[in-house]
Amino acid sequence: MNKNISVIFKIATFLTILSSCTEALTETRVNSNNGKEHKIYSISMNKICKEWDGQWQGITVASDGNCYFSSSTHSKGHGAGFHKFNPKTYEHTLIAEDMTVVCKEESTDSQQGKIHSPIVECDGWLYFTTHLSNYWKEGIESYTGAHVLGYEISSGKFRDFGIVKPRYSIYSAIDVDPVRKKLYVFVVPFLSELYESDGCHLYSIDMVSGEKEDIGLVVKGRRAASFWFYLDNNGNVWFTLWKKHYEYENDQGNLYVYRPDKGLIETYVDVLPKGKLIDGTPVEDKFNLSQRSWTWLSPLSGREKCYFTMGALGGGDERLWLFDPTKKIETGEAFQEVASIGSNYFQTTVGGERLYFVQYEDLNDERILFSEDEREIDPLSKDYVERKLHLRSISLEEGADHNAITDHGEIVDQDDRSARMIMSMSADDKGRVYVYGSWHVNSFKEATLQYLLFEYPNGDLYKLMKRGEFFAVINTLK
Fold first, then answer.
1. What is the 3-state secondary structure (H, E, C) of the chain?
2. Given a cut of 70, is residue 72 above it in pLDDT?
3. For position 414, what pLDDT does the model report?
C-alpha cells in the first residue's frame, strides 16, 4: 500500500511540473518584445517541455531571416522539439513539440529524440535528420531507425523521407547538392550485432523522388561518427571520422571524399594538419595525432572552399583553417591556416564576415574540460567551480587581422542566468548570435527533468536537474 501511494505521489508531482508548459509558452510570447532591450535575451525551454535536456547542432538562420532550432531529449517517452525564433519581433514559435509524432511513430517504443545534425537549406526547404534519444540497451534495441525530414518554410509543412536504413541512426552529418538535388547522410549502427557485422554507410536521397541509395560502407566493425559534410561546388562530399569514443585501425587523420561522377569513395590517408596550440606549441602526443578530425566546418558562399577546425575533441588543434579541394591534398597545400583562436567545438559559427565561438574565460579550461560533463556538477557541491563561458569572435574580412580576438563578454541573460554549456550555435549578418544550451536556473520550473540512463536504487526514473535548457539571442552590436 505504501509503495502504491509513493508511485501515485511521484506521478502527481511529475504532472504538476508539466502543467506549467502551456502557461509558460504563452508568457514567452506575450513578453517577447522585452528581449529587444537586452544584449542577451533567453527563453526557457523546460517551461515548455520538462524532458528536453540538451542540444547539439540542429540550428540555422534561414533565408527568411528567422532562426530555426531543435531541442533534444534522452527520454524513453518524448522526442525532439522544433522551433522558430523571429529576431524582428522576438516571437518564439513551437513548430513541433515531438518529432516522434511528426514521424508518425508515437505508437512505437522508439523515440526520435534528437535533431543531432546540421540543418541545411535548399529551394525554400530546411533538411535535417533525427537520432535516437535513449542510449541504454532497451532503447537501442527498440529504435526503428533515423528519419530524414524536410520543412517547407513558406507553408510550415513537413516532408518525411522515412527511415534511411532500418534500425540504424544518423550520426550526424547531412548536406545537400543543390544542382543534382541530392541529400547525403551518414548512417550509423548502435546495435552491437550491426556494427560488429556491418558498419557505417554513406547514403544519398533523391530530393524529388525520395529514392535512397546506399553509396557504400565507410568504416566496418566499430560505431563511428561524422558530424559535418563539406559538399563542394562540384558535388563532391568531403568528410572525416570523429574518433573520441572509437578507434579505427586505418584512420589516424584521414580525409574522405565521395565523388558522384566516379561513383566511389576515396581516402586520403593521414593528411589532416597536425595540431598546434594558440601560442604555436605543437600538439604531438600519440593520442591527439590519432584523433584528428573536423569538429566544425562551414562552406564559403560559393562552396569552392570551406572553413574548418579540429579542436579539443578532434586532435587538439587551436586554429581556424581554410580547405581548398582544388589544391594538392597529400602535400598539405590544400590546408591554409587562417587564425589561431584557441580550442573550440560545436559552439562555433559564421555570421556575415565574422567567426563566432564560445569558450571558457580561461583558455586552459577550454582545452582540458568538456562542458557537457561540467554542466552536471551540482552548483552547491564541494566539487563545483564556477567557470564562465564567453562569446568571442574574429573578423574574416580580407585584409583584417584574423588573430585579433574580440571578447563579447560572459554569456549572462536578462535575468542573471549564466550559460553552462553551449553546443548549438548560429548567427546572422546583423551581429546577432543564436545559442542553445544548458544554463543555471532561477527556479525548479526552469529545470530539466532528465530521464536516467540507469535506474536509481529507489526506483526513480527521472531526476530534476540543477540546470535548464535555454535558447538565447545575443546582440553583439549592443
1. CHHHHHHHHHHHHHHHHHCCHHHHHHHHHHCHHHHHHCCEEEEECCCCCCCCCECCCCEEECCCCCEEEEEECCCCCCCCEEEEEECCCCEEEEEECCHHHHCCCCCCCCCCCECCCCCEEECCEEEEECECCCCCHHHHHHCCCCEEEEEECCCCCEEEEEECCCCEEEEEEEEEECCCCEEEEEEEECCHHHHHHCEEEEEEEECCCCCEEEEEEEEECCCCEECCCEECCCCCEEECCECCCCCCCCCCCCEEEEECCCCEEEEECCCCCCCECCCCCECCCHHHHHCCCCCEEEECCCCCCEEEECCCCCCCCCEEEEECCCCCCCCCCCEEEEEECCCCCCCEEEECCEEEEEEECCHHHHHHCCHHHHCCCCCCCCCCCCCCEEEEEEECCCCCCCCCCEEEEECECCCCCEEEEEEEEEECCCCEEEEEEEECCCCHHHCCEEECCCCCCCCCCEEECCCEEEEEEEECCC
2. yes
3. 97
Would you list the domain boundaries of the chain?
1-56+346-478
Q: Is a pLDDT exceeding 70 seen at residue 103? A: yes
Which grid coordinates belong to 434?
Answer: 543564436
pTM over 0.85: yes
Residue 4 pLDDT > 50: no
* CA 371-420-81 angle, 5° bins: 95
176, amino acid identity: V
